[in-house]
Structures
1.
Amino acid sequence: MSHGKQFTLYAHAQGPNPWKIVFLLNELGLSYEAKYLQFDIGEHKAPEYLKINPNGRVPAIIDHKNNDFIVWESGAILLYLVEKYDTEKKYFATSEADRYAVLQWLFFQVSGQGPYYGQAAWFTVFHPEKLPSALERYQNEVKRVLGVLESVLTKQKWLAAGKFTVADLAFAPWNNSVAEGLLGPDFSFEKEFPATFEWHSHIVAFPGVKAGLELKKELSARAH
């Protein structure tokens, strides 16, 4: 380790999943050096990176204060960080019941939100031909996930444990893409899912999250 920070974070400047990790590292006050891989030249598939993450995706971290311990997959990284470094359980649960409540929402995010939002983004922006049926399917899935969140957040401020936890934080990057227009110019996040919009607004106001989003915006501006 030459940069002197506790963690090396392998990320992508615009891909949503690594920003979950940035947000939590910021909130926990943990130091890191980010390496933003360039997908267009295949850095995420390079042999040296596949030794770190055999799946060739981001994020991945190396914890230099724990014998260069490697963790990949965003959900696993979030759990590693809160279980090892959130000693006051500020962003995690203190009881068994709350722990499983946090975990169920975290697992829903990684299996239910991320993949569907990702496919909606793919067919909106990146797919070489327009496929209205595919776009409609995944946009409807985004709305379905938002509906699940709305059904809970109309009754409570946070998803689990009665406080802001890593479960809430995990949803922020992809929901921010909705706020930025993932579902098109005619969709109003605030109007159609008001409780979820308010919850998201609270999340992005946390200092570590806000700082991460500002950095993401800065990196995007540099790229253009």
2.
Amino acid sequence: MIVEQIQEAILRGELKPQDRLPSEMKLSQMFSASRSSVREALRILEQKGLISIKRGALGGAVVRRMDTTQVTEGFTLLLKYKHVRFDQMAEFREVLEGGLTALAAQRVDDTALARLKSILQKAREVLDHSKEDWRAFYDQDIAFHVELAKITKNPVFTSVLCMLHQDILGADDKFAVYDHELMKQNYTDLANIITALEKKDSQEASRLAREHVRRFNGYMKAQEEMFAPPDPNQGQQVAIAEQND
């Protein structure tokens, strides 16, 4: 009851980021509940990422600015603990980015095209001047994908793409592109996507985006296998085989 009412007030905008909630005593009076019930409700709201609780004389519960941090952390944990398999992640990316690129082709305008071309030009400069600056190139690749999502004018696409590229893939070096030839291929992919967007060819834009993601997924799969810890059972299997011999 307490959690739901405060949560709805935050989601409706009645409580804004940085707003301070009443004290536990006042909340207890407002909801006709014990202070222990209020304290538990605040703990749940904090776990949901809706508020932060500061301790001390000047402390209290403050409404947080909504972002993707907690969702990202939870999703990253799922990946690390293999509850989300790599092939599932790859399938999700291919469908998501193919679909949103098709939508972007329908909604793109000259201003958005200019932004994409500016990002592509920066990527070209990285390729021309440094074969080893993979991070600078990867930053432009991420910016390109996020800009595509923004072109759809759908904030759900933008939030998911930011989480996926900036907070998950961009934060893990094993997913970075170290190979210069692959960076050149990525650049060509992005240039071809821009051409399809200029023609407002949704089908071609989607096909190119899917191929681009599929190629990168193959690279990521190889990187994941390279960084995977050794199988602890492999040594036992070898020892057993030797004993049998």
3.
Amino acid sequence: MTIASYKDEAYHIIKEKIIRLELLPGEKISRKQFVSMLDIGDTPVREAILQLKREGLLVIRPQSGTFISKINMQQVREAKFVREKLESAIVVEAVGIIDDAQIESLRQIVEMQEIYLKNGNSEKFFELDEEFHQFFYLVTDKTHVYTWLLDLNVHLNRYRHLTLKVKDFDWMNILQQHWDIYEALKAKDADLIANLVSRHLDLVDENYEAVYGEFHEYFD
């Protein structure tokens, strides 16, 4: 494997750990710790760190060290704005082309979410939340748009992962909104589904007080 390949591997592993909050916002971490954690050489790790710094996920402070960046709500809201505009258009497009088998696939996703929620498994519920949204990009053959959004939504996704740590978070509200979106899709109601998706993504702002209240130290 080349140095570039090792660098890419280090970059993706560290980035995923930051997004999933395995590395916490504001946490100090050294290059030596990354090398030990990843079992990858110093040079590719250094290059990965520089790339993550350029993307705003790491902060390097002279004489202080390297830190995981805190969550920036302005960037979260800007990412949510872009996703809301794109996703509202994509679900409307899906209404015009989706078939019964695909509608059934979406129903199964939401049904599994309901089962996991009843069993208290918010991690699995969250994984299926990703699958729920990705579903519409697959139906409309917009997978490259979805991949692009994942890169754009780094701070948004960190924020969303933080909701997993909030005590008494209202997962039932998310589930009900997913059922409402499913029913609108089944009814082929384009105006309703666009409105529902927009309202659904507004949960980012609606949940802010609960998330910030418990984890204010993770925010800029």
